[in-house]
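Hey, resending since the last one bounced:
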Amino acid sequence: MHQFNEGDIVRVKCGGPDMTVVCVDDNFFAREEAALAVFCVYEKDHFLFEQAYPEYALDIVRYERRRYTRED
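The structure tokens again:
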């Protein structure tokens, strides 16, 4: 299981805007790095930007609120 899931709010450890995780990919970076890629989207000046970061460069700001159905 990955540390990050779609919908989580994350931030780069060295600072920056809050970003929303779009997807996670384990085959994006070169094999030498062996890092999990976390694709994030953020808004700046009314434009949306998408960027891939290695998993170790991000901190969780807020986990996605998961909705569970009630079992009767």
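The two ends are 28 Å apart (CA to CA).

Sorry for the duplicate.
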